[in-house]
Amino acid sequence: MSFTRDDALARDAADPLARFRDRFDFGRSTCIYLDGNSLGRPPRAAIARIRRAMEDEWAGELVAAWDHWIELAREAGDVLAGIVGAAPGEVVVSDSTSVNLYKIAAAALDARGDRRVIVTDDDNFPTDRYILEGLARARGLELRSIRTDIDEGVTLARVKEALGTDVALLSLSHVAYRSGAIADLKGITAAAHQAGALVLWDLCHSAGAVPVDLAGAGVDLAVGCTYKHLNAGPGAPAFLYVRADLQPQLRQPIWGWFGQRDQFDMGPEYQPADGIERFLVGTPPVLSLYGVLEGARLTAEAGMAAIHDKARALTSYAVSLYDAWLAPHGFRLASPRDAHVRGAHITLEHPEAWRLCRAWKDAGTIPDFRTPDRLRIGVAPLYTRYVDLYDGLSRLRDIAENKAYEAYPATRSRVT
Prior knowledge:
By secondary structure, the protein is of the alpha/beta class.
């Protein structure tokens, strides 16, 4: 199969989501951006809303603006609920992903206090593994780690092998952060429930990228970030999900005043709020919450079905370019080839991935590097074009063919 730039432009012309690209602010950047699965571009609506909050609300109303800030965490959560297949009142925006994971994992372990095992997998995102390790050590529990193929992702069969009547909590990522492999959300959740365990899913690479049906799968708990595919901005607060019927049963460990039932009564004792607000802690970051709200609204407007269709088409196009251009230069596809079990990025393995990454960035394309020796290529269906992939991967082909990466040091420095 031959590829031309005109063919890429024709695909873009036929793209039903093409109109959303103009809803983002590109600033002065002329780069090809293939790292939106680490940090999304800013929506114009978010910039305008944050500016209005600063100029009209903060500057103009001062503390009186809390009259419409106080419900922002719940308001943004209800928009996100529609994106991840939950009901209003089951999602709230709060804290970071790590803190949220700690809060609801601790609550789940308390609810299964007669069980002594936490299960995760060895390719789960590091912060998840560290949080779970800390909880296990503090409580004298066993942390059982499933051996996972880092290209193909965690499987239902491996999960079933690790489950038993001693398991209190199973915690996994829905989309693998390295390879983009999609786990069997519904099947794994059902298997955990059959064993009597609660399930906590990390949706950081799912929310806004692939369809998620938390209610349909019967998921107990979930966390996710908002600054990747949801385009809420750097350091934007994360979200957490607790199934409605579980909310009265769980009490999270950080008792802050935003989780108090009668917050402004300033009572002497902590009484958790009745609903999802009981999982809040302290004063929310208002400006960032507006970023979450506008990013989520944009995603909801486009619709997850259309976003996922384009993500599969873009990544399949990238795989075809890899086959034609990059496989002959020593690259290996380190993601599932089947688009139905692949999220919104692909990963390529190469022994010189670090130096290739540096050279590629200097050539005007921003990818991501992940150990061991992997280039991660993210697509953001609301603004990534086929011609971006065509131009970006042609640059990578030229760098590999000419060995231009050899001019760069082989020693890695810290990269986010």
